[in-house]
Amino acid sequence: MKQPAGSRWLYCRGYVQFFSALLANSYFLSQLKGFCYPVLNCWACPAANFACPIGALQYATIAARRGLGVASLAAVLPLYVLGTLVLFSALFGRMMCGWLCPFGWLQDLLGRLRRKKHKTPRWTGYTRYAVLVGLVFVVPYYTGSPWFTKLCPQGALQGGIFQPLLYPELRAGIHGMWYLKQGILLATLVAMILIRRPFCGIVCPLGAIFSLFNRHSAWQIRYDADRCTNCMWCVANCPAAIDPRKEANGHSCISCLECQKCPYETIHSEPSWRRQPCSEHPGKAMGDVSPTIE
Length: 294
Ligand code: SF4
Ligand code: SF4
Ligand code: SF4
Prior knowledge:
Number of strands: 2
Bound molecules: iron/sulfur cluster
Number of helices: 13
Radius of gyration: 20 Å
Order of helices and strands: HHHHHHHHHHHEHHE
Largest sheet: 2 strands, antiparallel
């Protein structure tokens, strides 16, 4: 089989993920917790620099229930958080998942331990939307409690472990909910070894928000069916366990651009407005993505 190709910058994804995790958790900018970084990164972690968008949305939902008033910051916060998420995802689709999110990076790293690649049923790609509506909005609104945060394995890893480690006085407060959350974390870590990006594909409400914009974002992946030899290299190497020939830019695609390393240079990405006409097929754009089957 031919070797993977593609531009050099495609091979820097691991470094970008590392520096993004450092930026999100280096503590030296902790006064920036009023700002959202568009990734899943627990803001209860002592080292976290920015607010978690999902945490912020939940607390705004709870504040709305308590009726703090339109002028209060909490009432304005959802617009600011949603605006940030919409702006980033309209520009870059799910590239925050593929290139910036520390929890996505952890899944990529643990996935390297995997020998056999398991796939989840297609319908599991839709459970994230139920988590978003149910655990981020509906349940917090009616219970007044941030239920996604209470169960989030990312929070269990960062806030749940590092807080009691650094502040011994907090250990007395460890109770059943803490153990439940750590159990969810353990199950998630095991799943990360067995399945490609399980948390992103099945659970993450932030990924669900980004997914809504992926197909119409300003940065788009193109697939040129005429050059494809169906060697299946891209299918075997897609971190999201989808078929890039049919599902790139779809709601499960994390826009990591790994498929752009196609040995036959069949896949590339570019701004959505740049569609070069194909010389061999009049009326067709070069590198058009084939219809998605999602
Ligand atoms: S879907 Fe995955 S990569 Fe994207 S924000 Fe959620 S945890 Fe991070
Ligand atoms: S796009 Fe076609 S040629 Fe390229 S890696 Fe995928 S199957 Fe192989
Ligand atoms: S289809 Fe391509 S860009 Fe999308 S997740 Fe798979 S490898 Fe990454």
